[in-house]
Amino acid sequence: MKDIKQKRGEAGKKNVRNIPKKTKLSFAEQLKLSIMKMNRIPRTAQDTVPYRKMFEDGICQVTRNYYTKTVRFEDTNYEMVSDGVKKSIFDGLCDFYNYFDPSATVQMSYVNQQSTFADTMKAIEVDDQDDQFNDIRDEYRQMLRKQLTKGNNGLEKFKYVTFGIESDNIRTARIKLNRMETGIMQNLRLMGVESHSLDGKERLKVMHGIMNPGTDGRPFTFSYDNIRESGGSTKDYIVPMRFDFSENDSFRMDKTWCSVSVIDITCAEMLDDFMSKFLHLDRNLIFTMFVHPVNQKEAIKSIKGSLSDIQKKKIDEQKKAVRAGYDMDLIPSDINTYGESAQSTLNDLMRQNEKMFRLTLIVMNFEDSKDKLDSSIEATNGVIQLGNCTMRRLEDMQEQGFVSSLPLGLNLTEEYRQLPTVNTAILIPFTTRELFIKGSSSLYYGLNSISNNMILADRKRLINPNGLILGVPGAGKSFSAKREILGVFLQTDDDIVVTDPEGEYYPLINALDGQVIHISSSSNDYINPMDVNLDVVRNPEKYKTGDADTEEDIGTIVKDKSAFIMSFCEIIMNKPGGMELDGGERNFIDRCVKQIYEKFLYNNPTEETMPTLEDLYNVMMQESEHNEKGRNIAECLEMYVHGSQNIFNHRTNINLNNRTVCFDIKKLNTTLRKLGMFIIQNMVWTRVSQNRNAKRFTRYYIDEFHLLLNQPQTASYSLEIWKRFRKWGGIPTGITQNISDLLSSPQTKNIFNNSPFIYLLKQSEQDVELLAEYIGLSDTEKDYLVAADMGCGIVKFGDTIISFADHYPTDTITYKLLTTKPTE
After folding, report:
1. Which residues pair with 469 in a beta bridge?
2. Are residues 683 and 527 in contact, defined by beta-carbon separation less than 8 angstroms?
3. Could you give the C-alpha distances from 700 to 183, 460, 497, 543, 753, in angstroms and in order?
4. Of 99, 678, 683, 810, which has the fewest Cβ atoms less than 10 A away?
5. Is 732 within 8 Å of 721 (Cβ atoms)?
6. What is the Cα–Cα distance from 517 to 605, expressed in whole angstroms?
7. CA distance 474 to 471
8. What does 807-818 look like in DSSP terms, one character per residue?
9. Handedness of CA 43, 47, 53, 54 (dihedral sign)
């Protein structure tokens, strides 16, 4: 930030106090000011809101020849990013403001407003179901409510830019405004800021929310069909029942107490955190910035005039000094300072990418009682004083101030200060991205570590829902996975399958009445790696999707099973250095698999006649009589058919119809554990295939995921899941501590790159450097990950990166189901 501070400091010294504060206003501004200067008292609440017509496309005709549009834009990370990124955002804001020419009026609106309690609670509500788990749901609901109160999610925050131009008619105005809108959204996009153009109904809803805050406000029931049928005004649907402007420094909207103040920029230099402190206020308020570009020639002429005045004053002071017998160089220092500042500003306007703007800062506080309003104003004033600025109420101009606070692009206050681009852009309106997606499938992922707001997200809304949970041992990986599983179970109808190499998930699965399958040499639970989905043969029409990636038939069954058996053989052969099967070996396996399944699938196949590993072994022995490579593969397979490791040489005898299934493979030895995980992965394919036709999502959690990534064939098979699951309704989640395994080969890097959801817990310094390279972490974010407490870290949700903390309440039944701490 050194460059920013230096540039900002220089701009701060260019204190333009010497520039006349009041300059000749444009015709548009004179027209705006005349609206409220008419000697009349509004007869109705509608009269207070001075616009003529709101078109359906979002263009508002404010006066006879003045039109505006509004774009809503989101927050972006600023407080935790690197100095380089901060400078990039600052430069982007400079470009954003410089985009506008003197014909435009720009209004930046930052609205902090308490949402209704019902709306907030609805976003996190978990509805009861007709099952035996409503006691768990009730506790989970209470947990969410408790976490919600830790932040200010009840306070909704919105950012808008409203821009307007003069035009003789709506057709010309529409062309100009649409062109401006494209440029505005492009400039925001270059800063990594998402934006959305508001249509007419959305703009009306924004103003309705401002004028009808809280639970007692009138509901928004507007539609353009109503207007066409009744012939009424759009204002009828947005204004409160009454305004009361009888007080000189406050007013009322129905039962809401309000006051509008202007902020005087009296400091020589503003810091880039002025706005962030303001926006972090947990108060109902609207902060408004009017930014009007000054004609460049007029600005230069004005500053040159100021320089002439300063020079004249300097000469007068020198004459006084001579007459008084003093050294003529001993003149007031501020004269030289003003002269240097004005000259520097002039140089920037003439040579640099600088413009001059007339800047108006207004804040409207509003609360449901007079005492709360006074407290809110006091808190707001405290923050403004921290920035060495002053705040004063608009006495006898509350109505004008209120209208100026509405996102109409209409400034009726006659208050402004002229500032160059850099001093305007330093009012940076960004703090941290928030992630609070409303919806029945949105799950809890902790609290934003900066704002303390709840993180609520739905992975299904990403371009694909694939995910990874990464962290050092003890960071809370399994806890985080189980917390998501609990949310999925309570809030959705999705199926859940877990591969559990450490025996950590069974308490939760049992509590959810799920099925825990123990795979070990001493268990009687068997899964057959040769299983295929026979429903494809019995009901082929169900699997004709018209999509090559998801369509299934006997040919695709054989092809997929061949790829699986190749990976299976790669594991059991355990070639030195992780070598892949060569072409001859793959060809041999493919030939044997085709022989088995073409015979089986075309001859009335049943579960009772499903091939087993022994069938594969027998065919391999027959086919390898004159094939040395084939003989080697068959000999490696023998131990898993007739030897001590034959637990997978059985037909499946378990019922997988339960919604929640956990494969506990803790008792398998190292070789069989990897093999077991891989076989389970194959079974999940079948489950996903069946669920796709039932239009049901399948969540698949793979703990110790790195075990499937250190051999090329199994890594390749896992990559296929990451690439294809989305179209099949599958949502895979890999859980591992080994970042290096994830980034060790092109295949595994593709798994990482195909995971829009990444939940990062505490990391080692070595791993955090690897992560930073791939997802662009700042030094602050890297330090946060290295020093993170258990349950804390950074979540990447698409392009959104947010630091989080999840201190799950420990005095709950669900906590005991989720924790893996031996002492708990």
Report:
1. 735, 759
2. yes
3. 43, 14, 5, 22, 18
4. 810
5. yes
6. 26
7. 8
8. ---SSSHHHHHH
9. negative
Are the C-beta atoms of 153 and 453 separated by less than 8 Å?
yes
Q: Which H/E stretch holds residue 795?
A: strand 792-797
pLDDT band at 335 (very low <50, low <70, confident <90, very high): low
Q: Could you tell me which residues are beta bridge partners of residue 159? A: 73, 110
Cα(359)–Cα(419) distance, integer angstroms = 7
Q: Tell me, what's the pLDDT at 344?
A: 62
Q: How far apart are CA 453 and CA 457, in angstroms?
A: 13
- Dump pLDDT digits (tens) for 772-800: 888 888 899 999 999 999 999 999 999 89
First to last CA, the chain: 46
Residue 646: DSSP 8-state: G
Buried-state track 199-237, b at ≥16 Cβ within 10 A, e below 16? bbbebbbbbbbbbbbbeebeeeebeeeebeeeeebbbeb
The answer to whether the beta carbons of residues 225 and 337 sit under 8 Å apart is: no
Give me 512's structure tokens: 């959810």
Domains of the chain: 2-115+154-244+270-294+355-361+404-425 (no CATH), 533-651 (1.10.8)
| Residues β-bridged to residue 805 | 447, 792
Whether the CB-CB separation of 792 and 761 falls below 8 Å is answered with yes
> Do the Cβ atoms of 760 and 795 come closer than 8 Å?
yes
In this structure, are residues 240 and 211 in contact, taking their beta carbons and an 8 Å threshold? yes
User: pLDDT tens-digit profile of 94-118?
Assistant: 999 999 999 999 999 999 988 765 6
Q: In Å, what is the CA distance from 186 to each residue of 45, 60, 102, 160, 379?
A: 37, 22, 20, 15, 36
